[in-house]
Amino acid sequence: MKLLRKILVSLSSLPLSAFTILLVYSFMYLFLGEEVYVAQMEILRDFSVLLKEFLVIAIAMFIAIIAYQISYEKIFEKERKILAKVICMIALIVCFALLPIILAYYLLADLGTFCSVFIILWVTFVTIFSLIMAIKDFVDVWIVNKKLDDFKK
Fold it and tell me: Rounded to two decimals, what is the model's pTM?
């Protein structure tokens, strides 16, 4: 049941990938200009290109979300050994941060501008997400240490 729930949550990658494509083309228009945007829209006249972009990003995000859910749960299990936590952390980095970039780089290589903007957008997203998680962990540790200090008194 837990795995089915994780898979259903990971299916949120479908609307997220459509939104990501919208963001990529929006950033393309804002930062690269109207000429590049119009040229990319001409490429999209072929529906298979849009479908290819959607499928690659959806699969990459699906794997990233499910890897995040599984790894994050395993990292915080109390009975896990340090080696298992390190392996889960490496899997999280590879599947969540690197896999979408690698898939986009190789499978969308013929769409150079789209691929470049997506990679920049994904790296920015992963950086912001990592900073948020680091701040959350820092605050959690700070609260626990404060409670331990209060308990010692």
Answer: 0.76
